[in-house]
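Minimal example, chain plus uridine-diphosphate-N-acetylglucosamine.
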Amino acid sequence: MSCFSVTGGKKLSGEVTIQGAKNSVLPILAATLLCRGQCILENCPRLRDVEASIRILQSMGCLARWQEDALVVDTAQMSEPVIPDELMREMRSSAIFLGAMLARCGEAELSYPGGCELGPRPIDLHINGLRQLGADIEENGGRLRCCSSHLTGCDIVLSIPSVGATENLMLAACGAEGTTRIFNAAREPEIVELQAFLQLCGGEISGAGSDCVVIRGGKQLHGCTHRIRADRIVTATYLCGCAAAGGEIFLRGTREADLAAVVTVLRDTGCRIQSGTDGLSCQRNGRLRAVSPVRTAPYPGFPTDAQSVLMAALLCAEGTTVFEENIFENRYRHVAELRRMGGDIHVLGRVAVVNGVSRLHGAGVESTDLRGGAALCVAGLAAEGCTQVGGIHHICRGYANLPGDLQALGADIIWQHE
Ligand code: UD1
């Protein structure tokens, strides 16, 4: 089986350009369904989830091709608004196509996305919101059939600020007549980027980044050229890598403002992080310090996606750090693997207590999910000896080239093919 083989104990040194953000590009690919004309997405990361989205677009008759680092999408020839089962299964976030398909075609059919390794992944908020916009939605035998002869703008209040539901409803509302206001909307940078993309295409939309997004629908959108912003979770991963291994690195193309909560915690651990015009530098000398409890929360709180990589970095910190996971149920599956490397971690429900140890040792470990897998690589950078991280298909869902990037930062990591 392929694995990433990390030999730890080496300080990091070097620089790397941060890839485009997975969580930005996925909703934007769905948004291209609303546009007549070609959309050019520059700095588009080549990831498994992006390839799966391309296959979904192609299965509906759309054109998508790579042009160096840009993905060029033309949805003019879109035929059937149906996503086959096997493609739904390839990517959990494929429900994000629902709102755009409805807005474009007045109907949509796809299978119900099941659970995932993070626990159940319901889409009730997406469905309720779409119903409020006037969609008829039937669930039958695992398939969702949606239709609407006429979507009409309205006020929608989300019970929790779901990222996916906010995005799905923004896209559906672009095709609705009149004004839609989404209250208690998610405020993540990816929502702001989706709004920027829609505005570039001629959409009338405002408020993203606040808790109320306002969409004036019914406009025909056109194509555009948009540059995908740097991935804040990949940035957080490499900052945590430096925190774990020590040394000094520079991450090009990324912004502190998008990950202020992570940077604040890392500074508390003793890392020196500085923002420049073109990126972030991180320096760590001496032992890390444990920090006050880290509680995951919707943006601008501490991101759930960075919980595992920060935990990996703090395994050798002086003192005890408490984590509280408040977004997903099943997000401590990396803990058992980190323990195999000598981590002292105790989990009780949504709380994990990490007692810093003086050293970690390399081990054979298995990725259980995307960010959990990245955390094992981060821990591997700090461990004595060799860590072999299996299950790397999880990691490749979100990192375009994790071993290559870490090599550029001076780490001893190789991709061992079977
Ligand atoms: C997105 C990100 C993911 C990140 C998460 C939280 C993408 C492709 N994925 O996922 O990396 O970890 O935000 O920042 O952008 N919920 C419901 N009903 C719904 C929708 C969500 O109960 O209809 C719950 C979920 O189970 C979860 C919480 O709300 O407990 C947050 O989920 P949500 O913000 O929707 O996350 P995703 O959009 O799936």
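The pocket of uridine-diphosphate-N-acetylglucosamine is lined by residues 23, 26, 93, 121-126, 160, 162-165, 186, 190, 303-305, 327-328 (CB under 6 Å). The radius of gyration is 21 Å.
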